[in-house]
UniProtKB/TrEMBL annotation:
<dbReference type="InterPro" id="IPR022673">
    <property type="entry name" value="Hexokinase_C"/>
</dbReference>
<dbReference type="GO" id="GO:0006006">
    <property type="term" value="P:glucose metabolic process"/>
</dbReference>
<feature type="domain" description="Hexokinase N-terminal">
    <location>
        <begin position="39"/>
        <end position="243"/>
    </location>
</feature>
<comment type="similarity">
    <text>Belongs to the hexokinase family.</text>
</comment>
<keyword id="KW-0324">Glycolysis</keyword>
<dbReference type="GO" id="GO:0005536">
    <property type="term" value="F:D-glucose binding"/>
</dbReference>
<dbReference type="GO" id="GO:0004340">
    <property type="term" value="F:glucokinase activity"/>
</dbReference>
<dbReference type="GO" id="GO:0009749">
    <property type="term" value="P:response to glucose"/>
</dbReference>
<protein>
    <recommendedName>
        <fullName>Phosphotransferase</fullName>
        <ecNumber>2.7.1.-</ecNumber>
    </recommendedName>
</protein>
<dbReference type="Pfam" id="PF03727">
    <property type="entry name" value="Hexokinase_2"/>
</dbReference>
<dbReference type="InterPro" id="IPR022672">
    <property type="entry name" value="Hexokinase_N"/>
</dbReference>
<keyword id="KW-0418">Kinase</keyword>
<comment type="pathway">
    <text>Carbohydrate degradation; glycolysis; D-glyceraldehyde 3-phosphate and glycerone phosphate from D-glucose: step 1/4.</text>
</comment>
<dbReference type="InterPro" id="IPR001312">
    <property type="entry name" value="Hexokinase"/>
</dbReference>
<dbReference type="GO" id="GO:0001678">
    <property type="term" value="P:intracellular glucose homeostasis"/>
</dbReference>
<dbReference type="GO" id="GO:0008865">
    <property type="term" value="F:fructokinase activity"/>
</dbReference>
<dbReference type="GO" id="GO:0006096">
    <property type="term" value="P:glycolytic process"/>
</dbReference>
Length: 500
């Protein structure tokens, strides 16, 4: 039998343990309350209700009109949208025939492609492509060295043509050139380099015509080929989409970066001073990543990311919706939760402090984790951030952060598309039930299922039932390669008609 003293001692120990447990529970409650407050604040600041999205779309349409009126953006005034003239006034119809080539240069790798077209009945008979890596040393040497390397690979690819590809007797090979760097286009097949990006630093090339330089390199290889089309990947996607569906009116890239292009009536382009094209239309490269508006829902994380970027104050829209930035925004939010609420226990994970360590691919994999215990989230937190173990509640908080950031991005992307439709007057019911197809390419749209579904449902809500049924978003893959070859074919066909 325990003595009163012993019982008192036991009672004291139990009381002390209970007090410790109570303090732990209180600390835990405060921790989750603090993390929840960060999440709720993020939700409020990222909120993009329909009313706000309509304001964004109106601002987008207004910026489009301003950019079509003048090139004031070049001196820092006017619209944030460049609305670049592409000089492309004829898109593939499906009638194209013959053998055509494409060169897709978008970074440290490039791709060469050939396509045999058989007209309306046979369409694409055969297609082949090959990827080539550019040695890092060539990215900062002279322009001749770079273009000679590219032309050499192109010549090797041409020499590997088999009997399934046929070039008509006496006809010169024609090449569509996708060049995904800032260019001031001066015709359908010429444009001067404004600046290099993506690690290239060949200063002597800036201000020169990229097509002329590559044509010289092709001649030095003894290759009978001419570049007849200069485009970017967005215009290529529009071309590839139009080839399979004549209702394609615009194209959007939603990948590492983002951009849009669409078909505009020349009469609605005040800054166009050239002769009217026969089609009456011209493809406009919007460069919409640089769109900015007071209606965009910005957070402290976006402001800090922009300030620390290589281009502060620029590409604001892109920094909210593209694959290059979404994962980084999530990292910054989680870092605040770790700092303010000890989300990952008492110590802030060192890896979480490393900029860009969390990619949008990682974000996608965690957000779309369908396992009952969110095991994939736990694995990724361990692999990427070095966090050994997490509870379900922590993993769910990470998923919630991903959802807020992805939802805002997808809804803003939908608002951008809605802005294009408003500019074209296709946001209202058409008496002849005109169909509008938006061609989309890019890894964010293709692989981030939640993003794609959220974007599409948001656009439907903005359009309303009466109009939504006539607007379709269609995935079009490899527009940057196939689209360039198709445009070269379309342009060749137009020239033949003119000669006839």
């Amino acid at each position: 039998m325990r003595t009163p003293v012993a019982l008192a001692a036991i009672t004291a120990v139990v009381a002390a343990a209970a007090a410790v447990l109570a303090r732990q529970r209180l600390r835990e409650a405060k921790r989750w309350a603090c993390a929840g407050a960060v999440l709720r604040d993020l939700e409020e600041r990222c909120a993009a209700p329909a009313g706000r999205l309509r304001q964004v779309a109106d601002a987008m349409a207004a910026a489009m009109r301003a950019g079509l009126a003048s090139d004031d953006y070049e001196i820092g005034n006017g619209s944030a949208l460049k609305m670049l003239l592409t000089y492309v006034d004829s898109l593939p119809s499906g009638d194209e025939k013959g053998l055509f080539y494409a060169l897709d240069l978008g970074g440290t790798n490039f791709r060469v492609l050939r396509i045999q077209l058989g007209g309306k009945e046979r369409r694409i008979i055969k297609q082949q492509s090959e990827g080539v890596s550019i040695p890092q040393a060539l990215m900062s040497r002279g322009s001749n060295e770079l273009f000679d390397f590219i032309a050499s690979a192109l010549a090797k690819f041409v020499n590997s043509e088999d009997e399934d590809f046929h070039l008509p007797e006496g006809m010169q090979r024609q090449l569509g050139f996708t060049f995904s760097f800032p260019v001031k286009q001066t015709s359908v097949a010429s444009g001067t380099l404004i600046k290099w990006t993506k690690g290239f630093a060949i200063d002597e090339m800036v201000g020169k015509d990229v097509v002329a330089e590559l044509n010289k390199a092709i001649k030095r290889q003894g290759l009978d080929m001419k570049i007849t089309m200069l485009i970017n990947d967005t215009v290529g996607t529009l071309s590839a989409g139009r080839y399979v569906d004549h209702d394609v009116t615009a194209a959007v890239i939603l990948g590492t970066g983002t951009n849009a292009a669409y078909i505009e009536h020349v009469s609605a382009i005040p800054k166009w001073h050239g002769p009217l094209p026969k089609s009456g239309d011209m493809v406009i490269n919007m460069e919409w990543g640089n769109f900015k508006s007071s209606h965009l829902p910005l957070t402290e994380f976006d402001v800090a990311l922009d300030a620390e970027s290589l281009n502060p104050g620029e590409q604001i829209y892109e920094k909210l919706i593209s694959g290059m930035y979404m994962g980084e925004i999530v990292r910054r939010v989680l870092l605040k939760m770790a700092d303010d609420a000890a989300l990952f226990a008492d110590n802030v994970p060192k890896n979480l402090e490393i900029p860009r360590i969390l990619s949008t691919l990682h974000m996608l994999m965690m957000h779309q984790d369908a396992t009952p215990d969110l095991n994939i989230v736990g694995v990724k937190l361990k692999e990427i951030l070095g966090i050994e173990s997490t509870c379900y509640k922590t993993r769910k908080m990470v998923v919630d952060v991903c959802e807020v950031v992805a939802s805002r991005a997808a809804r803003l992307a939908a608002a951008g598309v809605y802005g294009i439709l408003k500019k074209l007057g296709r946001d209202i019911a058409s008496p002849n039930e005109q169909k509008t197809v938006i061609a989309v390419d890019g890894g964010v749209y293709k692989y981030y299922t939640f993003f794609a579904q959220c974007m599409e449902s948001t656009l439907k809500d903005l359009l309303g039932e009466g109009v939504a049924s006539s607007v379709v978003i269609k995935l079009v893959e490899d527009g940057s390669g196939t689209g360039a070859a198709l445009l070269a074919a379309s342009y060749s066909q137009c020239l033949q008609y003119e000669d006839d």
